[in-house]
Amino acid sequence: xxxxxxxxxxxxxxxxxxxxxxxxxxxxxxxxxxxxxxxxxxxxxxxxxxxxxxxxxxxxxxxxxxxxxxxxxxxxxxxxxxxxxxxxxxxxxxxxxxxxxxxxxxxxxxxxxxxxxxxxxxxxxxxxxxxxxxxxxxxxxxxxxxxxxxxxxxxxxxxxxxxxxxxxxxxxxxxxxxxxxxxxxxxxxxxxxxxxxxxxxxxxxxxxxxxxx
Length: 213
Prior knowledge:
Elements lengths: L2 E3 L6 H11 L1 H8 L5 H17 L3 E6 L5 E9 L5 H5 L4 H12 L4 H19 L12 E8 L8 H15 L5 E5 L4 H9 L3 E8 L2 E8 L1
Parallel strand pairs: 4-5
Antiparallel strand pairs: 1-2, 2-3, 3-4, 5-7, 6-7
Helix pairs in contact: 1-3, 3-5
């Protein structure tokens, strides 16, 4: 039996574990093939801790033994902007998370991640003509299901719960990005009412922008 919950906070380490196992191409791109697994877990944990402190709402799929089988992070449409992350949040908690993240990275890796963040931020700023202003909208920031638990409808349940959260917040639209080659995810999003309306790019390549209004 799988339970979908929306806690105020979540175990950033468990979310990091799911991310690492779900997106090996991204992990290798940003960290290389020989990055120590324990350090990789630490870096990703602090990264997700930063997002959770910054206002991202976690949606979790948990089995009867309390194991995380999937997660979805959702927030306001402009959640990735620094101003939104600081709004109503503990600056000290964000600072601690950010410092713990940066001090575990080499300068080269930190620069690469920072450059990617800048590209994403520029992409966010380039949305003035989108169907709904980002600050009045929701955004699916990241979603993943344990590779061993796929094919059980967990991703669909997570996304439905995230959309329920967005509806409760009164968001007029919900945005997300998906890689063009990720056909199963794109099909799921289309099944739940998302449509494509453009593309953006980061250091890894192209994203397809999708919106649900």
